[in-house]
Design brief:
Number of helices: 13
Shape: globular
Structural class: alpha/beta
Helix content: 40-55%
Mean pLDDT: 89
Distance between the termini: 29 Å
Number of strands: 16
Radius of gyration: 23 Å
Low-confidence stretches: none
Order of helices and strands: HEHHEEEEEHEEEEEHEEEHHHHEHHEHH
Length: about 400
């Protein structure tokens, strides 16, 4: 009995999406590896690849010789005229923008510091850069994905405490209303990137924490971010792990944020509250590395507060691995004893024999941009996304 035409088209589309997702997750995967992973015959893999090449979604490159018999299977990679995501990172002091291709490759990039922390002024600059990317790449630009150092619900920043932003809408950032706009918290997106392409690759339950100005992060389960009912989850820095007499810019008292970054180091050194806590933390870390005892003690105090808080999260969330980026990565390298001792001391006793490891991020400063791009490609690599690309770019 022959498969009805609509059903056959559906099966072909699903096969094409499965191949695309593999190429995105594993750049330069060979056609033979795809066939084995997806359970495809050699003929089906060849046919699907040919269709995706015709649609300008993937390209093939010659695989390096293996030394064995026969010709090596070609490797699949992003097509040079394929779909792109415009990924944007809006941080406390800086912004960064990159166009990203299938497979996670970063193409043209630009960045700058905020000349004015007013949300309107910052977003005007970002809006202009997105418009330039749209003009340069045209219909290849299929999604705009924005990471923000703040609490996000939908496409709205409900609170970015360190920048004093509240209830800021981002809906008009993209000049083309047909291009989807996706917005997420920067630390959560960095965690997704670490799970997909960094130290947490292949880990079922990953807890990622970013320490910049305060602490943010996410629990990633089976490649999915656990961000709560409205998308505002992961604000770990606002857990009451700190001094209950100390008010946070978020409005709460006793936030963990205030114990682990440049503000905590400045207090420990008897210095005024810093204008740029991240830059001040870097200065204290450099002083500690040069042997200054007061700076070493200040760094150790912050590392201890970070370790105890991480232990509390591990007790509550049960991850298999914890990754740290930003200042958290620096504290792993600069104060490993203080961090490790506080972490182990805060764990429930049954975890002591096999505690979840604490690892430094392998993606470093690229994690947020890569995570934003991952969310963008999640929107592109769908039935609707494939149909839209086929119609708008390659023709019906």
């Amino acid at each position: 009995m022959r498969t009805p035409a609509p059903r056959a088209r559906e099966l072909r589309r699903q096969g094409a999406l499965a191949v695309l997702r593999q190429v995105h997750a594993r750049p330069e995967v060979t056609r033979a590896e795809l066939a084995r992973t997806l359970g495809l015959s050699s003929g089906s893999a060849t046919e699907i690849t040919a269709r995706l090449k015709a649609l300008r979604l993937v390209d093939e490159i010659g695989a390096p010789p293996t030394g064995g018999r026969g010709r090596p299977s070609p490797a699949l990679t992003a097509h040079p005229e394929g779909p792109l995501v415009c990924a944007v990172d809006i941080g406390h002091e800086r912004w960064r923008l990159a166009t990203v291709e299938l497979g996670g490759g970063l193409l043209d990039e630009s960045s700058g510091r905020h000349r004015d922390r007013d949300s309107g002024a910052v977003l005007t600059v970002i809006r202009r850069r997105i418009a330039e990317a749209s003009h340069t790449h045209g219909a290849r630009l299929r999604a705009v994905s924005v990471a923000v150092a703040g609490t996000v619900q939908g496409t709205r920043i409900v609170q970015a405490s360190t920048m004093r932003w509240r209830d800021v809408a981002l809906d008009d950032l993209c000049p083309d209303p047909s291009v989807p706009l996706l917005v997420g918290n920067d630390a959560s997106l960095a965690g997704l990137a670490e799970a997909m392409r960094g130290a947490g690759t292949g880990v079922r339950a990953l807890l990622h924490l970013t320490v910049e100005v305060g602490v943010g992060g996410v629990l990633v389960m089976d490649g999915r971010m656990m961000t709560g009912a409205t998308g505002a989850g992961g604000e770990f820095g606002h857990l009451p792990f700190g001094d209950p007499r100390r008010q946070c810019p978020c409005g709460a008292y006793g936030c963990w944020d205030l114990e682990v970054d440049g503000r905590a180091m400045a207090r420990a050194l008897g210095r005024p509250a810093p204008h740029d806590p991240r830059a001040d933390a870097e200065a204290v870390l450099a002083e500690a590395a040069s042997g200054d005892p007061a700076s070493r003690a200040a760094v150790g105090t912050a590392a201890t507060a970070l370790g105890r808080g991480v232990a509390g999260l591990v007790n509550a969330l049960d991850p298999a691995l914890v990754t740290l980026s930003g200042l958290g990565r620096d504290l792993i390298e600069t104060a490993p004893d203080e961090l490790g001792s506080a972490y182990l001391g805060g764990l429930m006793s049954f975890r002591h024999d096999d505690p979840p490891p604490l690892l430094a991020s392998t993606l470093r400063g690229d994690g947020t941009i890569i995570g934003a791009a991952e969310v963008g490609f999640d929107a592109i690599l769908t039935d609707d996304g494939l149909e839209s690309w086929s119609t708008a770019v390659a023709g019906p």
